[in-house]
């Protein structure tokens, strides 16, 4: 749709849930999660809705894709290790690499404007505990806890994103 909310266009049209869309900075591609093949996977399509391609194919849920600013990498969460962890992959779905390794669940990744870090929510301090915000370098190093409160801390974002 236009920035003012006019002219909405349905880019996906199937009975499955499609959501969690993330556009590349240049606006040419959209990554999103969908259950259209019977399991939640990550897909990419052109901004006009054409050229839809499934990038992941794992029995576990793959969801919440986020592009790096250069459009070369997608960060997402997956349950493929038994608990929600963050992963990266190339824009074509190759080179899937686990980013977080600690207790989880870890979800809601958001990539910094410079593409060097990822902020995320986690309940790693025990099931049912308060969610906290962490940040990690895009290569999986330098994980740092940012919040330590008695309230829920969710959906981190970066200035300029």
Could you explain how this protein is built, in words?
The strands form 3 sheets. Strands 1-2-3-4 form a 4-stranded antiparallel beta sheet, with no helix packed on it. It has a 4-stranded antiparallel beta sheet with strand order 5-6-7-8, with no helix packed on it. It has a 4-stranded antiparallel beta sheet with strand order 9-10-11-12, with no helix packed on it. The mean pLDDT is 91. It contains no helices and 12 strands. The protein has 161 residues and is mainly β. The radius of gyration is 16 Å and the shape is globular.
Topology diagram in text:
Blueprint (H helix, E strand, L loop, with lengths): L17 E6 L5 E6 L6 E6 L6 E2 L7 E6 L5 E6 L6 E6 L6 E2 L7 E6 L5 E6 L9 E6 L6 E2 L16
Antiparallel strand pairs: 1-2, 2-3, 3-4, 5-6, 6-7, 7-8, 9-10, 10-11, 11-12
Relevant terms:
161 residues, mainly beta, four-stranded antiparallel beta sheet, 37% strand
Q: In short, what is this structure?
A:
The chain has 161 residues and is an all-beta fold. Helices cover 0% and strands 37% of the residues. The two termini are 19 Å apart.
User: Averaged pLDDT, please?
Assistant: 91
Distance between the termini: 19 Å
Order of helices and strands: EEEEEEEEEEEE
What strand order characterises the main sheet? 1-2-3-4
Category by helix and strand content: mainly beta
Number of helices: 0
Number of strands: 12
Rg measurement, Å: 16 Å
The low-confidence runs, each spanning 5 or more residues with pLDDT under 50, are: none
């Amino acid at each position: 749709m236009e920035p003012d909310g006019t002219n909405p266009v349905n880019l996906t049209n199937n009975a499955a849930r499609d959501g969690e869309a993330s556009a590349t900075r240049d606006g040419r591609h959209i990554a999103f999660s969908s259950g259209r093949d019977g399991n939640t996977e990550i897909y990419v399509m052109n901004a006009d809705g054409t050229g839809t391609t499934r990038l992941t194919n794992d029995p576990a849920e793959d969801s919440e894709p986020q592009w790096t600013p250069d459009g070369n990498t997608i960060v997402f969460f997956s349950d493929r290790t038994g608990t929600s962890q963050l992963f990266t992959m190339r824009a074509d779905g190759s080179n899937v690499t686990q980013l977080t390794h600690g207790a989880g669940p870890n979800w809601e990744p958001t990539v910094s404007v410079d593409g060097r870090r990822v902020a995320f929510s986690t309940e790693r301090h025990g099931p049912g505990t308060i969610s906290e915000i962490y940040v990690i370098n895009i290569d999986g190093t330098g994980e740092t806890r940012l919040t330590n409160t008695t309230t829920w801390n969710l959906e981190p974002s970066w200035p300029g994103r």
